[in-house]
Design brief:
Oligomer: homodimer
CATH topology of one domain in chain A: Jelly Rolls
CATH class of one domain in chain A: Mainly Beta
Organism (chains A, B): Flavobacterium psychroterrae
InterPro entries (chains A, B): cNMP-bd_dom, cNMP-bd_dom_sf, RmlC-like_jellyroll
Low-confidence stretches of chain A: none
Protein name (chains A, B): Crp/Fnr family transcriptional regulator
Largest interface: A-B, 30 and 30 residues
CATH superfamily of one domain in chain A: Jelly Rolls
Number of helices of chain A: 9
Order of helices and strands of chain A: HHEEEEEEHEEHHHHHH
Strand order of the largest sheet of chain A: 1-8-3-6
Pfam families (chains A, B): cNMP_binding
CATH architecture of one domain in chain A: Sandwich
Chain lengths: 187, 187
DNA sequence: TTCGTGATGTGACATATCTCACTTTAAATT
DNA sequence: AATTTAAAGTGAGATATGTCACATCACGAA
């Protein structure tokens, strides 16, 4: 089960068995059922999560109690309310299971210990952060350059499996359009 | 002039004089006039830039030759076509001066040497990458939750100086609306 | 099975935004 | 100062999207 994690890290940086053992001491395993919350708005954010199996949604709830999907996280994805995690403040978003989900997670303290204790791990996080930034920037560009239909088609192309696993109303929220509009795009 | 850079880095990590001297060997200075390009779409991206003075726009040009502002960069901001920079591929965006601009810059080679030679610098880049990601995510949330007027007001609040220095047509492009719509928001 | 809930589709109308054309104003260039 | 160019405002009509209401369908719980 931690094999997923090792394989994931080694896509970026090869590890010795000792190094991976060191890394493992900083992770713990957790299991959640569909509809359970890993992070709830207003609570402290103790962990950053790596999804082994299952599916999560990161949700921002606005003043009028409307939910907006900031992102999804499936197998091999990292997720958290990163701002709250890094600054150790209250969650501004919630992280909820769309399916039964198994994760590995670490605390900020463990994060620092991994970075300090193993430079490779700091390098890994740097790569991940860079790619995370690039992903967000790509999403912004997609929004600047494309209409709803095009953005939906790009998502379909980019994450076809997601569309199978997630209700269309959530896909619509992720794309920033109403579920009715998304429904009409297909026809 | 490099004092800006040192101060900027030391907001995150204190440096000794030797460390800063090491860092400096990897930066070079460049000056550009208004309307000049630091990066042109299709060309290789040799550098990542730190703005000492002046103002830049990062532009994505779509298939129908319409320009979209991905971001602005003013004093103390970093900018590049990061994807092209890190992967050493051709620029998909262009980076152009809105004012006479002075920058410090480094190559990918220098980036790697700095990370390898000074762990503090890798830590610095990690922090920067994390904050960059968070900034993009905040922009996405702003787009998901707010209408054009609200997004404009948020920008005004967040970067009041930017609105002074940049034509409204470019602000509109950054917000993903037409210049006419932005013009009508004020009234 | 039966019931209830959530997911999806669709019509009708309101609203936001875009596009195009034109004018006015401000700024840059000679 | 004169001329040119860029920026900004505005009207009118087309288009995209949102909202509300309702109907249908699928699926899991009792």
């Amino acid at each position: 089960m931690r094999a997923n994690l090792r394989e994931h890290i080694e896509k970026i940086i090869p590890l010795t068995d000792e190094e991976f053992a060191f890394i493992c001491t900083h992770f713990s395993t957790k299991k959640f059922k569909k509809h359970q919350f890993l992070i709830q708005k207003g609570d402290p954010v103790k962990y950053c999560y790596f999804v082994i199996s299952g599916l999560l949604k990161l949700v921002y709830t606005d003043d009028s109690a409307k939910e907006h999907i900031v992102s999804f996280a499936m197998e091999d994805w990292w997720e958290s309310d990163y701002y709250a995690f890094f600054t150790q403040t209250e969650a501004t978003m919630s992280l909820e299971c769309l399916e039964d989900t198994e994760v590995l997670c670490f605390s900020l303290d463990d994060y620092k210990k991994m970075c300090d204790g193993l430079q490779k791990m700091e390098r890994f996080f740097l790569e991940k952060a860079n790619f995370g930034f690039l992903g967000s920037q790509r999403r912004i560009i997609s929004w600047l350059t494309s209409n709803s239909k095009e953005r939906y088609e790009q998502l379909l192309k980019q994450s076809p499996s997601l569309i199978q696993r997630v209700p269309k109303s959530l896909i619509a929220s992720y794309l920033g359009i109403s579920r009715e509009t998304l429904s009409r795009l297909s026809s």
